User: Fold this.
Amino acid sequence: MDSNIKLFFVTFAVLAISITGMAVGVILSNRKLQGSCGGLGKIIGEDCMFCEKKEECKEHPEEAQDCLKA
Assistant:
């Protein structure tokens, strides 16, 4: 039973270090988190209701990819 507890703590430590490393990476990259205007909604034809540039994309569909990247 003692080796199982050691294995648990080692596994937990590795997982905690990994999550902490990813969190520090996100913080240091200083990028704003944002959702995507795509995914399953795009496949079934639903619009992204949170896209700030949706009207611009509708007016100029040839430039829609550039609108969604900004």
In short: The CA atoms of residues 25 and 53 lie 28 Å apart. The mean pLDDT is 75. Residues 2-29 form the longest helix (28 residues). DSSP finds four helices and no strands in the chain.
